[in-house]
């Protein structure tokens, strides 16, 4: 079988109602290599790039309450910068390229439920409506 745990998906398949950054982009801590005195940032086991995380709001009206905000991990050499906020709104619309989903069993609270881990290679501004062209890219962490 050619399934290795993670699935490549399109941003719009996961976030058909859009997605909004609701927190800071933060380094992911490597708990195996870190000590109390010396934190070490996690690296992607496939690419060797640093791993960052960002909280994202899913505005899907049918999403469960506990699934409205998800974490997306981004592998990049530098800290990604979210797209600009919409004037007058606190949220930043975002799209992810190179998105993968890894299902896993979450047994939190004694009740088992399938949960999902999201990873991406690029965080960018959404495509401009009607133009068919992407908006200018936010800093995805890639060197210029």
Which features would summarize this protein structure in a list?
single chain, two-stranded antiparallel sheet, disordered C terminus, 31% strand, 10 strands, mainly beta, Plasmid replication, integration and excision activator, 144 residues
List how many beta strands DSSP finds. 10
Secondary-structure element string: EHEEEEEEEEE
Tell me about the biggest sheet?
Answer: 8 strands, mixed
Helix content: under 10%
Oligomer: single chain
Q: What's the number of helices?
A: 1
Which class best fits the helix and strand makeup?
Answer: mainly beta
| Poorly predicted runs | 130-144
Number of domains: 1
Radius of gyration: 16 Å
Overall pLDDT level: 86
Q: How would you sum up the global shape? A: globular
The fraction of residues in strands falls at 25-35%
Task: Please report the distance between the alpha carbons of the first and last residues.
Answer: 39 Å
Structure report:
The chain is mainly β and 144 residues long. It has one domain (7-124). Helices cover 3% and strands 31% of the residues. The chain has one helix and ten strands; from the N terminus they run E-H-E-E-E-E-E-E-E-E-E. The strands form two sheets. Strands 1, 2, 3, 4, 5, 6, 8 and 9 form an eight-stranded mixed sheet that branches. Strands 7-10 form a two-stranded antiparallel ribbon. A hairpin with a 6-residue loop joins strand 8 (100-106) and strand 9 (113-120). It is globular and about 40 Å long. Mean pLDDT is 86; it is low at 130-144.
Brief synopsis:
The protein is mainly β and 144 residues long.
